[in-house]
Design brief:
This protein is of the alpha+beta class. The protein has 2 domains: 245 residues, FAD/NAD(P)-binding domain, CATH 3.50.50.60; 139 residues, no CATH class. It is 28% helix and 25% strand. The strands form 7 sheets. The protein has a 7-stranded antiparallel β-sheet. A 5-stranded parallel β-sheet has the order 7-2-1-11-23. Strand 9 and strand 10 form a beta hairpin. Helix 1 packs parallel to helix 13. The chain is elongated. It binds flavin-adenine dinucleotide. Flavin-adenine dinucleotide (FAD) binds next to helix 1, strand 8 and helix 13.
Length: 398
Amino acid sequence: MKIAIIGAGPAGIFTSLFLKDFDGEISLFEQNNDIGEKLKLTGGGRMNVTNKIFSAKEFSSENLNLLKNLFKSPWIKKREELFAELGVKYKWEGDRAILESGNALKEVERLNMLLQEQKNLRVETACKVMAVKTLEDGKFLIGFQNDDAVKEEIFDIVILCGGGMFRIKDLGDLKKIYKLPLELGHSVTNLRPSLSSLFISNNPLAEFSGVVFKGKLTDPVNKKSASGEILATHQGLSGPAVLDFSSMIESKHIELAFISEIDEETFSKEFQKMRNGNETVKTLLHKFLSNRICDYLLKISALDPEIKIAMTSKENLKKLQKNLFHLELRNVDVMDYSFAWTTKGGIPLKEINVATLESRLHKNLYFAGEILDVNGLCGGYNISFATISAKIVSESIL
Ligand SMILES: Cc1cc2nc3c(=O)[nH]c(=O)nc-3n(C[C@H](O)[C@H](O)[C@H](O)COP(=O)(O)OP(=O)(O)OC[C@H]3O[C@@H](n4cnc5c(N)ncnc54)[C@H](O)[C@@H]3O)c2cc1C
């Protein structure tokens, strides 16, 4: 029996490793010169491996019912066992697990060594799979380009692990990226860049670019929101909460709260309590925010930087609170694929058996990782999904 795995990102690498006991030949094809090109960049080079908070709620898909069924896999809960099996060592930083070595490059080197040592595996890098065709006997004919020569080979099982739009080498037409599954009769859901910074035209926040704060972003139409660390940039906003929010946003106009640790009511009560004192508004704001953001908020609320709380009218307080908790940002866009960590969308879950990840159109055709319409938030969700899906596929094959 021969298996072809197409794409050596985490999904393809881990599927290969989980198949170490497969009694047959496995070929892992990667178009780049090295395996795991994207994996090397993850988590700013430290790789967010997984997260303590982990359920279907942290993922999106066009088919939420099938996503929930997929999340019934026992490997969702037992994902730490999978990392142990792969030898991926990590440490916890709050809810996130990051590589113990903090070095994604070294980790990819380690994984490469494991692949090279695996007896039943051949790794073909700088080798792009150009076509996968089904044959009458149910096998697959694969055409691939290697050293400028186009070769063909027959396989019994094919696992598509081509990831999403982000390509070190190949940022082309959307549908071209999904050429192999499309030619096999599969479809692709709506696609869009996700886990990306936000671009704001005529960015009003540019004057405090470089400042990080804990805030909240809300899409007023679909009511979805994300809170946490936000970084003001020249072009707009970035940081973990912004990346998460980019996977939810549907509107052009959004709302920003500069504070996420307390709500508007608590702030208002705090404000009223200090009415009899000698404190300035800026002193209160400064409890939560950096100097530059305080100055900005006072400016846009048309308040004197030295104004005392006792001297602030109800109207002024209302204006300040609106800017502090509901600042409207207009003409906001998710940055394009070259900036996005992931692609939202992919092969629809209705076209696969979610218990095995085998295609419903072709026996012995499987999918793992980001190529599927399963898109996680920022913080270890996507690598975890690549790992879990790799295990589901390899278990069903074994
Ligand atoms: C900057 C950045 C930081 C990130 N940080 C994190 C993080 O910390 N934690 C986290 O969980 N996720 C993170 N992600 C997301 C995560 O990297 C991806 O979700 C994950 O790599 C998807 O794995 P995959 O194997 O499905 O696809 P990919 O990693 O995209 O791998 C697919 C591979 O298939 C190859 N390929 C495609 N088509 C062909 C073909 N026809 N022939 C041969 N080869 C082909 C591609 O070249 C590619 O190497 C980050 C992403 C980026 C860009």
